[in-house]
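Posting this for the archive.
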Amino acid sequence: MDRMRIKTFLIGALLTLFFPIFASSSNLGKETPVTLIYTSNTLGEAEPGCCSYTKGAGGLARRAHYIKTVKKEANNLLILDGGDALTGLSPNEMEKKNNQKKAGVILKIYEKMGYDVLNIGDTDLQLGIEYLKALQKDSKIHFLSASLKDPKTGKTIFKPYFVKMMNGLKVGMIGLITPVGSPYTQKEAKKIKDFYIEDPVKAANETIHSFMSDCHHIIALAHLSSSEIESFAQKVPQISVIIGGDDRTFMFPRKINHSIWVQTDSNGLRVGRLDLRLLKEASEFVDIMPMTLIKKNIEEIQKRMENSQSMKEIMDLKKMQDILQATLFEKKKKLPTKGKNTYKNVLTLLHPGMESDKEIEKLIDSSRDQLKRPIP
């Protein structure tokens, strides 16, 4: 009897000792869905049709409606801006004052859309550091920049990073700005001497090492040139997603080292959506968009088969479905997703046929004096 008690006690002790490890290990393999809405280089454009080449696309009211539709379906949503959201160029003091008024309205609209984070871009700097600090003070949006620093103290002027927990997954965001800004920005920095821009690789590595080493995934809001981003991704391997945009062109996702690089174009023409399924311990990413599209086609063919009254049409559709099923099977073999993060990306053009958010439309109408575009 004593032996049985000792045996039971030892088993209980071992279970108590090792159960947390087992529980932790099982949690490591659990996927967490995260959706990113991302934009860059809006340049303070609230309304569509800022330039002839846009053909009436863009507008914050359309973007707001789009974001509302995503909010209804997405789990763990982050709404992020990669920089140059608030203003375009300010070539003189008069334009700077006009753009400051405009920026206040743009920020109010961003708050209503539900943005979490706004990275500081080089044209944003033309509003003036003190003005940007005043905007940040009264805003619930986190202004980020790990590389924008005070020359007197060497400390960051804005928060360098922001962390959010999502179903046990720790997701960090870091803001970065190119040290090779516009000639106007460089001139202002020398004249005013109220900021300097540190090398983004150095700033990122220091911030991650000091404050973000326990993040499972890190998103870099990188207002850098294409060549800077390529170098950055190689030198800062902890980054999972890079939201770029200083060169103001949209691009489809590109993998560099361990990072997925995405970005939208200028003047708010497009909005990006990146759907992620993240594992705590995984660094590799697989693009599942091709497989998602094939599955969607298979489902659509199935519906057509169920609604068809023609046996010949049903047989033809069945052949198409079989081909797609075989293609899907092959893709799954070539791109196994087990133990890897997955992503699918959609860039949406905010075209004139899209619905607009009425509340944002009213806000724009009531703020038209502040939002008016300067005469070239």
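Residues 289-334 form one domain. The chain is about 40% helix and 20% strand.
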